[in-house]
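Dear colleagues,

As part of the handover before I leave the project, I'm documenting each prediction I ran so the next person doesn't have to rerun anything. This entry is a single chain, and its sequence is reproduced below.
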Amino acid sequence: MKKRVVITGMGVVAPNGVGIEEFMHGIRTGRSGIKYIQELKDLGFSCCIGGVPELSDDLISRYLTDLQRKNFNSSGILYGCISGMDAWMDAGLGIDRNSEVDYDTGIIFGTGQSGVEKFREAIYKLDDNKVRRLGSTTVAQTMASGISAYLGGILGCGNQVTTNSSACTTGTESILMGAERIRSGKARRMLVGSSSDHGPYIWGGFDAMRVMTYKYNDSPQKGSRPMSSSASGFVPGSGAGAMVLEDLESALGRGAKIYAEILGGHINAGGQRQGGTMTAPNASAVKKCIREAVNEAGIDPDTIDSINGHLTATTKDVLEIRNWKEALGCSSNNFPYINSVKSMTGHCLAAAGSIECVASVLQIHHGFLFPSVNSEDLHPDIVELINPSSVPGDIRIQDVSTVIKASFGFGDVNACIVFRKLKN
C-alpha cells in the first residue's frame, strides 16, 4: 500500500515577500514585487522591469557562514538555501551542521541555470589568463546540482540528493518527484523545491524573443497582467520555494504541523507534436496531464475549489483556460476559481512552480483565495469561456479544501498536482 504524503514545512523567497509570513501577507493584499531595474535599461533591454527578492546582509548572514559567503555570487543558490532552511525549521526539524547523516531524508531541488553571475565572473578571469584566481567554489556555485549540494551539506541528508531541471515546470515537478519517493517507501522525508537566479544574463534571451512586456516600464506594478486583454508579455522574476514532504505516519508520530496532503499528480510531455513546439504546449498533452492528475488524486473535478494557474500574461493564457475547462469538464458557470501568483511576482521561471505551490497550500491552510491582480480587464476570449466571477480581484475569505496547480515549460513539458486539506 502506498504511503500518504503530507506537507509539514514550507519556505519561500519571492519578489513580494521573503519568508512565509511576509509572502502570505503579500499575496493576501495583492502586493506586487515588480520594480523598475535601471541595469536592464542600461543594457538595452526592451523590458526594464522585474521581480527580485529583497535580502539584507544581516538576513543572509543567518543562513550562510562567513566561509560560505566568501566569493559567493549565485543568487539562485542563496534563494534556495534560505527557502529550504526555512522550510526545514518550519517543519520543526533542527539544523545541526555536525549531526549524523540522515539516510531517511533526501532532497530534490531544481533550477534552470545555477550561478550565472559566478560563471560570467569565471569566464572573464579565464579570458584574462587568471585561471589560478578562480577560487575553490566556482564549480560548486555553477554546477547544475549546486543548490541541492549546498542544502544536502547544511542539513546532512543521506537519501537521494539531486537537482531536476524542466524549464518552468521544474518546481512543480520536484514536488511530485519527492512525493513519489516517499509514496514508494524509498524515503521518509524529502525537502523539495526550486530556485531561479535573477538578472540580465538569465532574462536576456527572453527579451530577445520578445515574450517579455515592454509597455509597462513606467508602471512596473501594472506590468504582470495574466488573463488581461491589455497583457503584452510576461515580467521576469526570481526566487525560490521549498516544502518538506513527509509520510503521514512519520508526521503524526512526531506531532508535526500538517499544512495539507498531496493527493496525487501527473507529469508528462507533448512530444512537440500536435501544435506543441519547443516554446508552445501541445494542448492535448496538457489536458491529459490535468486529467491524469485528477484521476490519481481520486477526486471529482466538481470538488476543486480553486485552480492556481500557470498563466504567464502571454497570448497562451486563453489556451490555458480552454485546456482547464475541457480537461475538467466544466461549464462556464461551474468553473472553479482561478488565480495567478505571477500577477504579483512576475514569472519566476524555474522557481515559479514551487513558489506557486506554496501559495496554493497557504490558501488551504489559512482559508482564503488570493486576488489575481491586474486581471480587471479580462481578455474577451476568456470571458467567453468562463464566468468572470471565477477570477477573484480581491481576497476571498472562505474554506478552501482542494486546490489544483499546474506548470508548463519550454520543451513542451507539463506537471499538475492536487493538494487537499488533510482528512481522515
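The chain has a mean pLDDT of 97. DSSP finds 16 helices and 15 strands in the chain.

All the best with the project,
I.
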